[in-house]
Write a structure and sequence with these properties.
Elements lengths: L16 E11 L2 E11 L2 H15 L7 E10 L16
Antiparallel strand pairs: 1-2, 1-3
Length: 90
């Protein structure tokens, strides 16, 4: 029996999640401390995004890049705006 339009189950793509990443990059014996936000559906996807960002940032001819991830967590979608009241002036 053929499926009708109503019978078809539509699979929605998962929205990209926001990931906060803090890491230390050692490039040519020099340390750089970074904090960034990357996007991905899951942890592996976020790690891939971080790898692309590091490659783009240090695309010059470097011998090696050592990355140490200090913290990597999914950001929460809720914030308490009252905490920032009056502290930010554009």
């Amino acid at each position: 029996m053929e499926e009708s339009w109503e019978d078809v189950s539509w699979q929605e793509d998962e929205p990209l999640k926001e990931w906060y990443v803090e890491y230390i990059a050692v490039v040519n014996q020099e340390k750089f401390h970074h904090m960034t936000v990357v996007y991905g559906e899951d942890l592996q996807d976020a790690q891939r995004s971080l790898l692309h960002e590091v490659r783009r940032m240090y695309s010059t001819s470097v011998e090696s890049i050592d990355i140490t991830v200090v913290k990597m967590k999914q950001t929460s979608g809720t914030t308490d705006a009252a905490l920032f009241e009056g502290m930010f002036v554009p």
